[in-house]
């Protein structure tokens, strides 16, 4: 497949351009990195001081509206937590319902309306998606490598956890596009780590690999089967709230107790607790090389701990990761003896107890010669080098050159098979109706990279008929795209409750030259910012319309249990939301929705309690 070179500064296709540089990016929960290939070696790009390749995955919104990313943003976590966003990766592709159980973990405001819409983060009077926040981190990484190489970078491979679903992977792609990057591949983190150690580069190799990933805040274990260059994830297991931060907390609790304080006595003193946490982190690192750590905190507290005590404190945490390994092997239906290699990923794997526990469980020496903080980014750079065509002995499977999707409410493009997906492939997504009693659904198929279908290429459409009339949101319509090796796309739609089914065939690449394809890609990157703004506005309007219909329905159904003041308040807030919907400011729409939801939620709970009480009246429960 020919390479299409694009000069984004001039907005032109380059037919005689040198081969594009494609970088590898590890977009992490705690820290992120960017790497590239130089003279056949993968290198992680370091900061201005040349000391660290890690960029904290933290975004801060300053009072002057400027955006800080990385170390300078991390410094604001204690002084200005409301405007400092961290661990945004946990929110990628998630709905309000998904994050409800761990909302208290975040120091910033998550809008937790009871809907399936993607989560939003409120900062002052503005609302941001995890995609927009992740894009800020990716922009900072892009600037970092461009300043080091003194050349523009437009193409990237980005890694994600193996357990990321389609929505999370698509959100990562969108963040890259918003940052001005053409994301050629989304690669699983354990796959990238394996590539960094050269596993899978030889087409004749057949290996079963365990990738043990213990970072600052999360733990993952993945079992991979690698054969003929294909990486198959057999199982994954993990804990999204277990990592090096817990090791630090154990040390702080130990010091607090040793100095005669209650465990939670420092909660009110954020400056001291942050200083102690930093001391604990320093102690943990020191104890990896030395038997004892000793220092004095700002308040005179003696901070002393030896390695044996530290290992006793963290032993239960390490055992939790070993149990995760045991579960992953069970899920993969493998005995521990079937594992050929164990790869260590994440800064917390530097702790000697972690290394010895993992080596003991798997019964073999672990791979830890590469920097565990950098190994995923290095692997991503190797994958990028393969895509750039610089490793001739690696077989590249054919890919689909442009994204394929369907039109959704408001003329939005919902991608089902992203560009650069290996073919043949199959992907599906579930939809529902937007109007009560709807019996027909138009399914229009498009190809392209823009957020609005009017900017993409229509491939075909059909009407799905015979959907049983049900209230809006109740039908479950699954749409599957099946793309074969010849580029023939079959689109199948099925209503799961009734079994009604329909399908069409379209030729996804017919009539598109490479130059037209390149123009479409160029347009998608150049208009990413404006496309995202339009999409955000349309999505806010769509969501608001649903809420307005729900509010109207609620008033009609519960007129008897609401007083005049409550009815008037809901009508007034709904009217304000209608005014906001008529405007062009998505933040005003989101704010009006939140206000209406906050007021009506207690009333909805009261109505439900009354309904339940009526239903069980006179019955023994």
Q: What is the count of DSSP helices, taking H or I runs of 4+ residues?
A: 15
Class by SSE composition:
alpha+beta
The second-level CATH architecture of the largest domain is 2-Layer Sandwich
In the predicted model, the low-confidence regions spanning at least 5 consecutive residues are 1-18
Percent range of helical residues: 25-40%
Tally the structural domains. 4
| Major pleated sheet | 6 strands, mixed
CATH topology group of the largest domain: Nucleotidyltransferase, domain 5
Determine and state the CATH class of the largest domain.
Alpha Beta
Number of strands: 28
Shape: globular
Integer-rounded radius of gyration:
26 Å
In short:
The protein is 37% helix and 25% strand. With 621 residues, it is α+β, with helices and mostly antiparallel strands. Helix 4 (130-149) crosses helix 5 (166-178) and helix 9 runs parallel beside helix 10 (352-362).
Question: What would you say this structure looks like, in words?
Answer:
Strand 11 (120-123) and strand 12 form a beta hairpin. The radius of gyration is 26 Å and the shape is globular. It folds into four domains: 5-197 and 374-387, ATPase, nucleotide binding domain (Nucleotidyltransferase, domain 5, 2-Layer Sandwich); 202-369, 2-Layer Sandwich (Nucleotidyltransferase, domain 5), CATH 3.30.420.40; 404-517, Substrate Binding Domain Of DNAk, Chain A, domain 1 (Sandwich), CATH 2.60.34; 529-615, Substrate Binding Domain Of Dnak, Chain:A, Domain 2. The chain has 15 helices and 28 strands. The strands form eight sheets. Strands 3, 4, 5, 6, 13 and 14 form a six-stranded mixed β-sheet that branches. A four-stranded mixed β-sheet has the order 17-16-15-20, with helices on both faces. Residues 1-18 have low confidence and may be disordered. It is of the alpha+beta class and 621 residues long. The relative contact order is 0.09.
């Amino acid at each position: 497949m020919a390479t299409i070179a694009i000069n984004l500064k001039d907005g032109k296709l380059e037919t005689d351009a040198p081969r594009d540089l494609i970088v590898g990016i590890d977009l992490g929960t705690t820290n992120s990195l960017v790497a590239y290939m130089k003279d056949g070696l993968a290198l992680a790009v370091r900061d201005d001081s040349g000391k660290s390749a890690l960029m904290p995955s933290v975004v801060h919104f300053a009072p002057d509206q400027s955006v800080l990313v990385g170390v300078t943003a991390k410094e604001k976590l204690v002084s200005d937590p409301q405007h400092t966003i961290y661990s945004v990766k946990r929110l990628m592709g998630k709905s309000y319902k998904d994050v409800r159980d761990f909302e208290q973990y975040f120091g910033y405001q998550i809008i937790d309306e009871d809907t399936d819409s993607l989560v939003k983060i409120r900062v002052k009077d503005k609302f941001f998606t995890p995609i927009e926040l992740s894009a800020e981190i990716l922009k900072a990484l892009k600037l970092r490598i461009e300043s080091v190489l003194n050349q523009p970078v437009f193409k990237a491979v980005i890694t994600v956890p193996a357990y990321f679903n389609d929505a999370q992977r698509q959100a990562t792609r969108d963040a890259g596009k918003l940052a001005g990057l053409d994301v050629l591949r989304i690669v699983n983190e354990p796959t990238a780590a394996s590539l960094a150690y050269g596993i899978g580069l030889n087409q004749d190799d057949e290996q079963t690999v365990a990738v043990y990933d213990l970072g600052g805040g999360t733990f993952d274990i993945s079992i991979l089967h690698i054969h003929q260059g294909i990486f198959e994830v057999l199982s994954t297991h993990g804990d999204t709230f277990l990592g090096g931060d817990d090791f630090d907390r154990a040390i702080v609790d130990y010091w607090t107790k040793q100095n005669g304080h209650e465990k939670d006595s420092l909660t009110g003193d954020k400056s001291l607790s942050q200083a102690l946490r930093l001391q604990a982190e320093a102690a943990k690192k020191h104890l990896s090389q030395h038997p004892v750590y000793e220092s004095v905190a700002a308040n005179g507290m003696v901070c002393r701990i030896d390695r044996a005590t530290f290992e006793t404190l963290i032993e239960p945490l390490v055992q939790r990761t070993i149990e995760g390994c045991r579960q992953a092997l069970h899920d993969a239906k493998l005995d521990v003896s079937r594992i050929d290699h164990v790869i260590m990923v994440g800064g917390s794997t530097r702790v000697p107890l972690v290394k010895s526990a993992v080596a003991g469980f798997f019964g073999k020496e672990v791979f830890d010669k590469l920097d565990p903080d950098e190994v995923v980014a290095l692997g991503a750079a190797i994958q990028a080098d393969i895509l750039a065509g610089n490793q001739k002995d690696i077989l590249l499977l054919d890919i689909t050159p442009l994204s394929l999707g369907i039109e959704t409410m408001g003329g939005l493009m919902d991608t089902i098979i992203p560009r650069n997906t290996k073919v043949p492939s199959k992907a599906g997504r579930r939809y529902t109706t937007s109007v009560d009693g709807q019996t027909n659904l138009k399914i229009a198929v498009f190809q392209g990279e823009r957020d609005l279908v009017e900017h993409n290429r229509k491939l075909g459409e059909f009407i799905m008929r015979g959907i049983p009339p049900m209230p809006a949101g109740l039908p479950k319509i699954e749409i599957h795209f099946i793309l074969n090796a010849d580029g023939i796309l079959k689109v199948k739609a099925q209503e799961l409750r009734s079994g009604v089914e329909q399908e069409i065939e379209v030729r996804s690449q017919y009539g598109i030259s490479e130059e037209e394809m390149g123009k479409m890609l160029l347009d998608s990157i150049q208009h990413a910012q404006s496309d995202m703004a339009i999409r955000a506005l349309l999505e806010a309007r769509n969501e608001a319309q649903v809420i307005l219909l729900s509010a109207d329905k609620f008033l009609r159904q519960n007129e008897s249990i609401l007083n005049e003041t409550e009815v008037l308040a809901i009508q007034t807030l709904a009217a304000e939301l209608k005014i906001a919907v008529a405007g062009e400011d998505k933040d005003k729409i989101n704010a009006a929705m939140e206000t209406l939801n906050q007021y009506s939620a207690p009333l909805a709970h009261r109505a439900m309690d009354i309904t339940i009480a009526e239903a069980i009246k006179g019955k023994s429960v």
